[in-house]
Amino acid sequence: MIPAVVYAIPAFLLLVAVEALSYRFLPDDDERGYETRDTVTSMSMGAGSQVVGLPWKAVAILAYAGLYTLAPWQLSPGSAWTWVLLFFADDLAYYAFHRAHHRIRVLWASHVVHHSSMRFNLSTALRQSWTPMTTLPFWLPLALLGVPPWMILLQQSISLVYQFFLHTERVDRLWRPIEFLFNTPSHHRVHHGSNNAYLDRNYGGILIVWDRLFGTFEPEGERVVYGLTKNIDTYNPLRVAFHEYAATWRDVRSATRWRDRAGHVFGPPGWTPKEVRRHGAA
């Protein structure tokens, strides 16, 4: 089964070109726009993610199908309520996935790819991980709920297509009810910010209500500074894809205690042992 998002790729590329041209003919000094090397890197990461992702989908389908057969009931695709349940369950699964991938370093090592650009435009949406294996556990419960595997994959693609349009500075705030319920470019700009006030905020996929419910929402206020708190300053796709795994491994190798090794892997990004933090504070 080919993911539905693959069919949207030509539209993605066309819209990237249109947005890039809009910066050329309607520049805005407050917006960073495009830079050729950055855009090429983002597109390279997107192409690589599709190469890795297509065979991985086969593994995901097998996992979903196995749990689907074990579900106490199978929900009917012909029922509107099944699609309503799937919409909210998928979006909540995305929130859990996204939050975990910001708070657990070994997961962040995969997701950091998406945050590695110091620009924010539609091409940034294509800057995706080459290690999608960490996503699967967050959607397995949907199969156990009795949702057919093809429906899970379809809704994942719908969510990704929606989120493509969030990666732009060309759209200001939208109508207030939309801003209250849905993830918007304004909310997602905050999520990509390296400002202290914006770190680990606005994890939502299609909806922003989960962030409001779980205390991770932050409205756009001060000018967003895009990128990482420590930028990697490279356009090499291999380094973009794996730099945080390499950094994690270096920290694990340098640690002298098993609890510190575990902290470097399963703690939040930037975690250091208490002794190091105390010494730094002193």
Describe how the helices and strands are arranged.
Elements: H1 4-7, H2 9-25, H3 36-70, H4 80-103, H5 105-111, H6 140-144, H7 149-164, H8 176-181, H9 185-191, H10 209-214, H11 237-254, H12 258-266, H13 274-281
Helix pairs in contact: 4-5, 4-7, 5-11, 11-12
Report low-confidence residues grouped into runs of 5 or more: none
Average of per-residue pLDDT values: 95
Helical content (DSSP H or I, runs of 4+): 55-70%
What is the rounded Rg?
Answer: 20 Å
Which word captures the global form?
A: globular
Oligomer: single chain
What's the N-to-C terminus distance?
57 Å
Keywords:
single chain; 282 residues; mainly alpha
Architecture overview:
With 282 residues, this protein is an all-alpha fold. It has 13 helices and no strands. Helix 4 (80-103) crosses helix 5 and helix 11 runs antiparallel to helix 12 (258-266). The longest helix is centred in the first third of the chain and has 35 residues, at 36-70. It starts with a helix and ends with a helix.
Task: Give a quick rundown of the structure.
The chain is mainly alpha-helical and 282 residues long. The chain has helices at 4-7, 9-25, 36-70, 80-103, 105-111, 140-144, 149-164, 176-181, 185-191, 209-214, 237-254, 258-266, 274-281. α4 packs across α5, α5 packs antiparallel against α11 and α11 (237-254) packs antiparallel against α12 (258-266).
